[in-house]
Amino acid sequence: MADERVKQEAVATRPGNKRRRPRVVIVGGGFAGIHAASGLARLDVDATVVDRRNHHLFQPLLYQVATAVLSPADIAQPIRTILRQQKNAEVLMDEVVGIDAEARVVSLASGVRIEYDYLALATGATHSYFGHEEWAKQAPGLKTIEDAIEIRRRVLLAFELAERQMVERGWHPPLNFVVIGGGPTGVELAGAVSDIARHYMTHDFRHIQPDKARVCLLDGGHRILAAYPEDLSARAEATLKKLGVEVHTEAQVTGVGPGWVEANGERMEAVVTLWAAGVEASPLGKMLGAPPKVNLDERGCVLVNDRLNPPGLPEVFVLGDLAHVEQDGRQVPGVAQPAMQMGDFLGKAIAADLGGKPRPVFRYFDKGDMATIGRMSAVADVKWPFRAHMSGWPAWFTWVTVHIFFLIGFRNRLSVLANWMWTYFTFTRGARLITGDQRLPGWEEQTEAKRSDKGRAAD
Amino acid sequence: MADERVKQEAVATRPGNKRRRPRVVIVGGGFAGIHAASGLARLDVDATVVDRRNHHLFQPLLYQVATAVLSPADIAQPIRTILRQQKNAEVLMDEVVGIDAEARVVSLASGVRIEYDYLALATGATHSYFGHEEWAKQAPGLKTIEDAIEIRRRVLLAFELAERQMVERGWHPPLNFVVIGGGPTGVELAGAVSDIARHYMTHDFRHIQPDKARVCLLDGGHRILAAYPEDLSARAEATLKKLGVEVHTEAQVTGVGPGWVEANGERMEAVVTLWAAGVEASPLGKMLGAPPKVNLDERGCVLVNDRLNPPGLPEVFVLGDLAHVEQDGRQVPGVAQPAMQMGDFLGKAIAADLGGKPRPVFRYFDKGDMATIGRMSAVADVKWPFRAHMSGWPAWFTWVTVHIFFLIGFRNRLSVLANWMWTYFTFTRGARLITGDQRLPGWEEQTEAKRSDKGRAAD
User: Fold this and answer.
1) Span B337-366, pLDDT tens digits
2) Would you put residue B263 in left (φ > 0), alpha (ψ -120 to 50) or beta?
């Protein structure tokens, strides 16, 4: 009875709600969430998409915002614009603060409570500092547009401060950029930063030599791109080295501070440190916690069955990076492709329910992986429509085609293509803006340290 | 002797400086500063451009960033990229903190001191709150990219919060947007915000009716666009009214607070308040202060003669919005055109000095003014190559052509044109991103006030 009253109240807060098509609440407007919502377009349900942000973000290109090739608007679209034609979907910009899986009610930060018949959690994952949250300030990660703008600010600012210091003192701290984490994001960031220094800045400065900048990529494992086949890892490493990136594997980061990174107990100078290591699931999984007990893996991902439900909660689906799905004895990776496929699966499962048929089983169809490495190079582990290990510019060309194809929103595709062509043919990066704070943590410290080293020669 | 030593030291801080071509220091990378630097390209001088920001901003289109049509990178370019081919120009991202006009030394925030032979001050102006700095938080003005992003955030967020509130309570505070100041920026902002509400949001929301939003434009004078001929003011007002903008002239703003604006003692609700009134010169003019005494007008602009020098300082030029130049008994206006022409004048004056000829006299050649009013309408007071008062879409078409032509950087022109075509033909705004803080000052206050008004009906 008490539960029934909770439900009634929840419904009562939705004005004009006439009973009653099943309501599907989708939390998160990433790849999984958008695909989940779109998959409901022709079903006799009402969908509510809840996201803290007003926009869907095309994550695979976020590193290009961080490295001044694209503008945020090129890779982001308002979620409600994407779903504008889908009349059975509403979008709420709000944050989920509680889930009552028994009463089937989701509570939002604003106080709104939404009763659901189906709940899809697709809030993804973010980077993890392995318990060292204090490193976040020194070494920003790349997950949101704000992150990308912050990284762009730091990278560009380092060159400006060095130029200024040359005028002031005739020397500057070495331009060392350190990228921590040798996964696709780390490899892409390292390659792009090296590109900036070696190709895009060369004519712009009068006192510094941007191509003398060092870019170091640190990875704790014994090879970068550990999820790729070994030959592609080796080719990626060779390409990075050709770009001038120093690749350090088996490098365990033990400290990050203003102006330095410590790996394997050894300290190296770092004007800018970028974090591309570690994955931690969104806390939404924990909210499903009790009762009944939902199991999370060590990253906080929700263990789900082959229909993407946590055991005992057939009306709850966990999609995308937040889901821990085992297939053929291996975990489905937390990248865009499986997220889209899991999103698509939601519609199929609910359609089966509505039609009174048994739900299908989710199966990830892996078309392969790819990562760019600087200007016009990439590695691709192609699994469909043929199997191949590609590298160099053929892989890069494939990467461009696939990413343009999957970019949501026709205008964005055009704009991204135009920006890419401009960037690659003219060696000019279009979005080289420094906004916000105009200091760099660690820069002053290094300058002061060096000043006492060098005595009063410059005074 | 003492002065001579100061000079020697200043030079000594510039490593590798061989005596000695005249050094021209240009402070500010706006229209005046960029034109000033470019005008020195073929002269036997060394130029240093100092700006706090790394980018030149195409100010006349900034309101389109604030209203989600363009991205910041579309209207901004790094100053050093603009000047990359000009080998006698260096760019320093730094802030001027002092000017010693007697010793001819400029001091920068980083500690760098630059001796100059010529100094060009072109640091422009910003909006002024007429002594009510406390209004700035409630009513942001539009001068920097950060300002534009903040305005965009507030405008877009208002609709999101209203939609959320409809779901929560079945009502929302009225969507009143108040623009204070009826100059070109105020008119352009008001028209663009009205466009967003009436054209670009209509299919995106399920619970609110964005076209029910009110946009009010307040001006203290007896007509908007006071610098334009009276017939164009009247046409602009008529066009705004057709767009649904309420135009209130003779409206003296006496207070601005969270969720409200008080004009002529009467309080009106305002979900978002934008400030487009008042001009205040950059504080650089004051630094010229003494000795000798330089005169400033009431806005802080430096009074200069017809060669753009403050009296008694022939080696100092004041350019752009910071300069108070009288011509034919009227003050040259603080807009882009005279700034560019003043910038160009610097090169001519210095060339005359180097050639041992008398300096020319500056004369502003006024080609006219224009301002857009929402979608495909504008007013233009054309003075060259023919004289005409234009309005409606012919004026708009002229506006587009002129602005594309003057946009610095070929890529930006292409990108802006593409974004405009996309926006105007598809009724979709490309840059509708909400980043940063996801609250709105005043929103909660209004909600709480209304909640007690309405009693417990919604509970």
Assistant:
1) 999 999 999 999 999 999 999 999 999 999
2) beta
Where would I find the beta strands (DSSP E) of A58-202?
A: 76-78, 89-93, 96-100, 105-108, 113-115, 118-121, 125-126, 176-180
Task: Please give the residue range of the domain that contains residue B410.
Answer: 133-277+369-453
Cβ neighbours of residue B50 closer than 8 Å, sequence gap 6 or more: B25, B26, B27, B28, B91, B92, B94, B95, B96, B106, B108, B114
Distance of alpha carbon A239 from alpha carbon A249, whole angstroms = 15
What does the pLDDT read at residue B4?
A: 39
Same domain, residue pair A392 and A262? yes
CA distance A81 to A52: 16
Residues B50 and B89 in one domain: yes
Phi and psi angles of residue B47, each rounded to the nearest 5 degrees, phi first: -115, 140
Cα B45 to Cα A45, A186, A203, A396: the distances in Å are: 72, 45, 20, 45
Find the farthest-apart pair of alpha carbons in chain B and give their distance in angstroms, rounded.
Answer: 83
Q: Provide DSSP, B359-396.
A: PPPP-----EEEEE-STT-EEEEE-SSS-EEEEHHHHH
With cut-offs at 50, 70 and 90, classify the pLDDT of residue A455: very low
Per-residue pLDDT at A458 exceeds 50: no
pLDDT for A4 beyond 50: no
**Tally of domains within chain B:** 2
Mutate to test the interface with A, among B57, B75, B93, B447 (most CBs of A within 10 A): B93
Residue among B275, B66, B280, B67 at smallest CA distance from B180: B275
Q: Of the candidates A80, A149, A434, which has its C-beta nearest B54's C-beta?
A: A434
Residues 6+ apart with CB under 8 A from A32: A120, A122, A124, A319, A320, A321, A339, A340, A342, A343
Interface contact flag, A93 B163, Cβ < 8 Å: yes
- The answer to whether the beta carbons of residues B210 and B197 sit under 8 Å apart is yes
Active site residue A188: yes
Q: Are residue B95 and residue B149 in the same domain, yes or no?
A: no
pTM (two decimals): 0.92
Cβ distance of A204 and B80 shorter than 8 Å: yes
Residue in A94, A203, A411 closest to B422 by CB: A411
Q: Does B348 touch chain A (CB under 8 A)?
A: no
CATH number of the CATH domain containing A165: 3.50.50.100
Nearest to B50 by CA among B76, B24, B72: B24
> Which residue in B145, B149, B160 is closest to A93 by CB distance?
B160
How far is Cα B58 from Cα B76, in angstroms, rounded to an integer? 6
Which residues in chain B are contacts of A54 at CB distance < 8 A? Answer: 156-157, 160, 432-434
Q: Provide CB contacts within 8 A for B400, sequence distance 6+.
A: B420
Strands A378-382 and A388-391: antiparallel
In this structure, the answer to whether residues B237 and B258 fall within a common structural domain is yes
Residues of A in contact with B85 (CB under 8 A): 203
